[in-house]
Specification:
The chain is mostly helical. It has a domain of about 100 residues: Cytochrome P450-Terp, domain 2 (Cytochrome p450-Terp, domain 2), CATH 1.10.230. Helices cover about 55% and strands about 5% of the residues. The chain has 16 helices and 3 strands. It has a 3-stranded antiparallel sheet. Helix 2 packs parallel to helix 16, helix 8 packs across helix 16 and helix 13 runs parallel beside helix 15. The structure holds s-citryldethia Coenzyme A. The site of s-citryldethia Coenzyme A has 20 residues, from loops. The site of s-citryldethia Coenzyme A (SDX) has 20 residues, from loops.
Length: about 375
């Protein structure tokens, strides 16, 4: 029995006491450890923000240098993990390959136990460092190419882009991708972070925690939306107000969810979408403009008129795909990129959960029958 009401999707129900990420969806306010996302996006690197999320404070220059060196030293993958990736069907989605590789890593790095602080720290650094290498390796292996080894003279963002095709990105491309990672690094009690906390609350090892979170992020209503937004914009195929409005009205009339719009918390435009839209335009000078940006802007305009009164505005996924497409990143890597950023948030929440842990075990509202009479099969 329970004294609490059932709330679908636990909307608005607190699942933790936390100081990792603050957001006020009514005014589009988002802060990591109390620092506004706009300030972090302007002044920090992903490595610096990861340090802030994990340890609760911005690092000194020496602390950041030491943390950066730790991450770089852990980027390489064991060849046996590469061998596992080589056995996977090349038609498989990169998020499935990532789940498999992360779970495999846990077998190669068995630890004393997650309650050991040194094991926790080393494992957290190792996972954050290796996820980009796994995603880039799978991307190349599935196309019949050898993986490109990580370089220690490149930052986290540049090294990932380098491992995709062997080319060091321009400073503009590196910085735009770095800010994209910062914007995707954390977002309070979203579904995949909740998964991470639930799995972590059982004292499962951090590899199992991240494998669980990756699987949750893959869903189209969560991290999987970003690749669907780009396909949707390409399907609309033009930016005339009449055509875009007709497309939107048709989908809304069919009660279709329009990818990249709406949010459980935000009732205004996602502050990350505001920054990502600016990053997209910033890339146009170097990478050239794209007509799907005009389609996106017109769709945003039409959706504001059609459903803005319901608080449905662009979320983080609406402009991110345009940024990645301009960077030359294949569409099937959009969600894995979300994962290599959000892993910092997942692990920050894991560390916090373990500081004052109680295993998650919610209740239920019973809707079935009880004490039913059993009938042997030949009498049914
Ligand atoms: C992310 O939680 C996080 O923080 C997630 C995230 C993060 O950083 O971790 O921000 C990342 O997952 C962003 C969201 C990406 N997903 C999408 O873009 C998929 C499309 N969006 C929707 O599926 C939806 O908006 C959700 C899933 C994001 C939120 O779902 P809710 O809060 O459960 O809202 P709902 O489905 O109950 O919708 C409420 C109403 C409904 O209309 P009514 O039945 O009341 O008339 O709003 C409508 C919905 O039909 N609605 C939409 C819509 N989103 C909500 N209608 C059309 N298109 C949409 N996108």
């Amino acid at each position: 029995m329970t004294d609490y009401p059932y709330v679908p999707g636990l909307a608005g129900v607190p699942a933790a006491r936390t100081s990792v990420c603050y957001l006020d969806g009514n005014i589009g306010k988002l802060q990591y450890r109390g620092y506004p996302i706009e300030v972090l996006a302007e002044h920090c690197t992903f490595e610096e923000v990861t340090y802030l999320l994990l340890f609760g404070k911005l690092p000194t220059r020496n602390e950041l240098a030491a943390f950066d060196a730790e991450l770089k030293s852990e980027r390489r993958l064991k060849f046996r993990i590469i061998d596992v990736l080589k056995q996977l069907p090349e038609s498989g989605h990169p998020m499935d390959a990532l789940t498999a590789a992360v779970a495999t890593m846990g077998m190669f790095y068995p630890g004393d136990h997650v309650e050991d602080a040194e094991f926790r720290r080393l494992t957290v650094v190792r996972i954050i460092a290796k996820l980009p290498t796994i995603v880039a390796a799978w991307h190349r292996i599935r196309r019949g190419d050898d993986p490109i080894k990580p370089r220690e003279d490149l930052g986290h963002a540049a090294n990932f882009l380098y491992m995709l095709d062997g080319r060091v990105p321009s400073k503009t491309a590196e910085r735009v991708f770095d800010v994209g990672l910062i914007l995707h690094a954390e977002h309070s009690m979203n579904a995949s972070t909740f998964s991470a906390r639930v799995t972590g609350s059982t004292l499962a090892d951090p590899y199992a925690v991240v494998a669980s979170a990756v699987g949750t992020l893959a869903g189209p209503l969560h991290g999987g939306a970003n690749e669907r937004v780009l396909s949707m914009l390409q399907t609309i195929g033009e930016s005339s107000p009449a055509a875009v409005r007709h497309w939107a009205e048709d989908r809304l009339a069919r009660k279709d969810k329009i990818m990249g719009f709406g949010h459980r918390e935000y009732k205004v435009k996602d502050p990350r979408a505001v920054i990502l839209q600016r990053l997209a335009v910033q890339l146009f000078d170097e990478m050239g403009a794209t007509p799907i940006y005009d389609t996106a802007v017109e769709l945003e305009r039409q959706m504001a008129d059609l459903v803005g009164k319901k608080g449905i505005y662009p979320n983080v996924d609406f402009y991110s795909g345009i940024v990645y497409e301009r960077l030359g990143i294949p569409i099937e890597l959009f969600t894995p990129i979300f994962a290599i950023a959000r892993v910092s948030g997942w692990l920050a929440h894991l560390l916090e959960q373990l500081q004052d842990n109680r295993i998650f075990r919610p209740n239920q509202i019973w809707t079935g029958q009880v004490d039913r009479e059993f009938t042997p099969i030949d009498e049914r």
